[in-house]
Amino acid sequence: MDDFWLLSLVYFLISFFQIHPPQEIQSAGFSIPSLFSSILGSEESFFIHYHIVRISITIAIHSLIPIGYFLVIGFYQPDLKLFEISSLNNFWKIYFSVSLLTTIGLATVVFYWYMSSFENHPIARQLKKYSPNGQWKQIAAQINNEFRHFDKFSSGTSFYNRVYLTDNWLIKVNLYSVKICPTSNLDIALTGAIDLNLTTDGSMGRQLLKLVAKPLNDPCLFEQFILRLSSFEYHDFCEKLSLPIRQTCDIIIKQSLPEMFIESFREQVMTNQSTIYQREVFKKKFK
């Protein structure tokens, strides 16, 4: 049984790092966008198509993780006799059935998207709301064109958690979705901030700002979503957005290293012990 738990731990760790790969694994080329780069194409040139295919491949591969665990355990632990389906105990029967149905169900959804030329993909359905005649590919072409501009705002170091702001579109990229909204119908508010004492990425500041984006007029246009930006990036984001950002609470935004240095220096001074000393004053007399 010790081998069973060790094998399970290794499989879960590999699965976790595949779903949420750290920067080192992404740099080494073991993430899904890197492994399937020849299929995905260029994000810079065809942003919408890139993420439609990326999400489809990601869902298809991640749907194999549960059933993959069953197969790995069955192969490396033959004493459990997992491949003898009729003799399995209730736990493994339920696990096998749920895992198999999950894989088949998600694979069917992805295949349905592919066979419909991605007309029913969530990104395509979202873009149809922004087109008067429902032609989402025209909106996709506009977004692709603006995304190629060098002056777009971008934030984030991971492929599954990034924020982009072009001339007319605010975009948030997640692992299984891409949130897209026009800035012409955008209400955005600064709702909170977190001061980080420790950071693993030197590009991120000690303060993380929370912004909520929601429709300005039509509440059905898109679902509200949350953005998280470093305080160092906030000024560039505001300049590119060129829209007023409501502030729902009292937040002091730390936007520069000198401000952070002054605050740290002040905090350090406050922790120092007080010392009382006398100063002697010597007066020189001239004759």
Notes on the protein architecture:
With 287 residues, the protein is of the alpha+beta class. Helices cover 46% and strands 17% of the residues. It contains 11 helices and 8 strands. The chain has a 4-stranded antiparallel β-sheet, with helices on both faces. The protein has a 4-stranded mixed β-sheet with strand order 7-6-5-8.
Sketch the major β-sheet.
4 strands, antiparallel
Question: Termini separation (Å)?
Answer: 99 Å
Number of β-strand runs = 8
Strand order of the biggest β-sheet? 1-2-3-4
Q: What does the oligomeric state look like here?
A: single chain
Which strand-content bin applies to the residues?
Answer: 15-25%
Which structural class fits the helix and strand makeup?
alpha+beta
Element-level helix/strand string: HHHHHHHHHEEEEEEEHEH
The tally of helices reads 11
Please estimate the helix content. Answer: 40-55%
Radius of gyration: 27 Å
Mean of pLDDT: 86
Q: pLDDT under 50 segments (min length 5)? A: 200-205, 281-287
Global morphology? globular
